């Protein structure tokens, strides 16, 4: 593949092309200086196929906050995926693609009043709640809304814990909220939970689903007709990870506690779909060699400064607790040298990798970072005037055929 115009950001792969070859062609073209992404559409299609195979009963509602790239949303909408939105702007973005309001859940338990009014106006009527105040707010602003009560059930190990902010206690708080919803005349349709983003504690899903079963029975006794079970997020998506263990536990728990077609089961995967689909390429624009004692003059540490940092794509280090590994685009030789990698801004906080062994690299060489699709671009800013990386989309000729098969 020969790069002649970087404004043409769609690359169709042939049998000899892949993500790495596309990055090399762009990086070595002489036309590219800024950091850039390569988005592999086929990776998203493959993830959707995996989800449908592993958890055929669980309908995915993609968490837009994870990565709201328009092409990502278009591909997922075409695949039949539904959407988890957290604000009126996210709702509008999804609706602009022609997605029906019924395919959206407003899954933010703490919603500004104007956002609730907007959801009512555009027909997004399913929304989550975890406290008394929110129930009273919805009663006033959108009494016909379909209420999903979110409980707390935290994974012991997760990349981002969410229970400290959202989710009511399933044993003590949830029954009281059920009674309040009944007294207010609200339409409670189901229950949800979120075990934590990037969950590494698969058995937590069994505990959470069991809690929901108890609450389903309690709600039915009160006079509600619950039919929706929302399994939330927490599904890993990096290269080399798998949802096999989680899906096995979820399928077994559904068979045990919700073995009926009367219950509609959904989930809110985010990073599962997009983490591995985005690869970031950055170039070294500056370098500082730290030398040892005066009489040796040997380099003891190299500091590399690249053209993206924690105020850009690598905000994930601060907000998403990610760990990243730079991969030099060229194969090195000679001894490995202790090194650190820094972003381009004037802030000392802008450190990407503190200590890693790398071959000696020169100015203008490129480093790539895999698994950069989750919680990166949506939070990136042009601090200090450094641009947010643009992206190149790649797809192979069989992507559409695969998509047709999955749909």
From TrEMBL:
Stretches assigned to the Orn/DAP/Arg decarboxylase 2 C-terminal domain: 37-373
GO cellular component, one term: cytoplasm
Cofactor(s) this protein cannot do without: pyridoxal 5'-phosphate
Biological processes per GO annotation: putrescine biosynthetic process from arginine, via ornithine
Domain of life per record: Eukaryota
N6-(pyridoxal phosphate)lysine sites (modified residues): 65
Keyword annotations: Lyase, Polyamine biosynthesis, Pyridoxal phosphate
InterPro entries: Ala_racemase/Decarboxylase_C, De-COase2_C, De-COase2_CS, De-COase2_N, De-COase2_pyr-phos_BS, Orn/DAP/Arg_de-COase, Orn_de-COase, PLP-binding_barrel
Task performed by this protein: Catalyzes the first and rate-limiting step of polyamine biosynthesis that converts ornithine into putrescine, which is the precursor for the polyamines, spermidine and spermine. Polyamines are essential for cell proliferation and are implicated in cellular processes, ranging from DNA replication to apoptosis.
PANTHER family named in the record: ARGININE/DIAMINOPIMELATE/ORNITHINE DECARBOXYLASE (PTHR11482), ORNITHINE DECARBOXYLASE 1-RELATED (PTHR11482:SF6)
Protein family: Belongs to the Orn/Lys/Arg decarboxylase class-II family.
Name this polypeptide is given: ornithine decarboxylase
Organism listed in the record: Cardiocondyla obscurior
């Amino acid at each position: 593949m020969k790069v002649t115009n970087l404004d043409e950001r769609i690359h169709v792969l042939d049998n000899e092309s892949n993500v790495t070859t596309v990055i090399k062609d762009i990086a070595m073209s002489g036309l590219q200086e800024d950091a850039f992404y390569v988005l592999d559409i086929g990776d998203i299609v493959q993830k959707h196929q995996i989800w449908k195979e592993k958890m055929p009963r669980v309908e995915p509602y993609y968490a837009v906050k994870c990565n709201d790239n328009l092409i990502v949303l278009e591909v997922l909408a075409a695949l039949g995926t539904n959407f988890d939105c957290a604000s009126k702007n996210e709702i509008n973005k999804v609706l602009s693609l022609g997605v029906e309001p019924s395919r959206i859940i407003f899954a933010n338990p703490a919603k500004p009043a104007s956002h609730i009014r907007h959801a009512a106006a555009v027909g997004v009527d399913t929304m989550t709640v975890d406290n008394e105040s929110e129930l009273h707010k919805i009663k006033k602003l959108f009494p016909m809304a379909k209420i999903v009560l979110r409980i707390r059930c935290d994974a012991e190990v997760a990349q981002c814990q969410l229970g400290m902010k959202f989710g009511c206690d399933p044993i003590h708080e949830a029954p009281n909220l059920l009674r309040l919803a009944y007294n207010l005349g609200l339409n409670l349709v189901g229950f949800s939970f979120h075990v934590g983003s990037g969950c590494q504690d698969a058995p937590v899903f069994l505990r959470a689903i069991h809690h929901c079963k108890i609450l389903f029975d309690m709600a039915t006794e009160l006079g509600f007709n619950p039919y929706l079970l929302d399994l939330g997020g927490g599904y890993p998506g990096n290269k080399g990870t798998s949802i096999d263990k989680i899906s096995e536990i979820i399928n077994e728990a559904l068979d045990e506690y919700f073995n009926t077609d009367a219950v509609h089961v959904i989930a809110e995967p985010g990073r599962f779909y997009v983490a591995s689909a985005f690869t970031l390429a950055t170039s070294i624009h500056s370098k500082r060699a730290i030398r040892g004692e005066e009489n040796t003059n040997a380099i003891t540490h190299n500091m590399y400064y690249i053209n993206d940092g924690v105020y850009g794509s690598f905000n994930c280090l601060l907000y998403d607790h990610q760990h990243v590994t730079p991969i030099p685009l060229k194969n090195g030789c000679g001894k490995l040298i202790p090194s650190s990698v820094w972003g381009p801004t004037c802030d000392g906080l802008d450190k990407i990798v503190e200590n890693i062994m790398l071959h000696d690299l020169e100015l203008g060489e490129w480093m790539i970072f895999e698994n950069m699709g989750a919680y990166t671009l949506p939070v990136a800013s042009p601090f200090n005037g450094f641009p947010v990386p643009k992206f190149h989309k790649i797809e192979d000729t069989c992507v559409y055929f695969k998509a047709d098969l999955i749909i």
